[in-house]
């Protein structure tokens, strides 16, 4: 193997580690906090009309959090009228949602069904969204909790 190949591979590995460390540092700090112990009511107005980028998911039974490699490819935008729009890698879609205090139900609507490639995590993203039942907003971080667990998807505002 040539020296330049080794250098390039080393730089790629270091870049991925830097991204993983950066994202995990920005992730949820309240591990051990039970689902929805937040007392702040989430309203449609407080989460609407901005685009949220999926940065990762914390699962109780996973050894490490899932870090989304390119959050701009996995977004959700809630509208005040009860609709939402998503980007799931190479696919787009929409649906409706019902928000009652911190409880949220996402009802899927039309969605493109392109194959995004073997490195895509679009199916995982969509599966998580289909299992969401509550929401917490902490500053510029949106947390969507999954049914029956303390597992949560983490989103940051898109700028």
Structure characterization notes:
With 159 residues, this protein is an alpha+beta fold. The chain has a single domain (3-157), classed as Lipocalin (Beta Barrel), CATH 2.40.128. It contains 3 helices and 9 strands; from the N terminus they run H-H-E-E-E-E-E-E-H-E-E-E. It has helices at residues 3-26, 44-47, 122-129; strands spanning 51-58, 66-67, 74-78, 83-88, 91-100, 103-111, 132-138, 141-146, 152-157. Strands 1, 2, 3, 4, 5, 6, 7, 8 and 9 form a 9-stranded antiparallel β-sheet that branches. It is globular and about 60 Å long. It holds the Pfam family META. Keywords: Stress response.
Offer a concise description of the structure.
With 159 residues, this protein is α+β, with helices and mostly antiparallel strands. It contains three helices and nine strands.
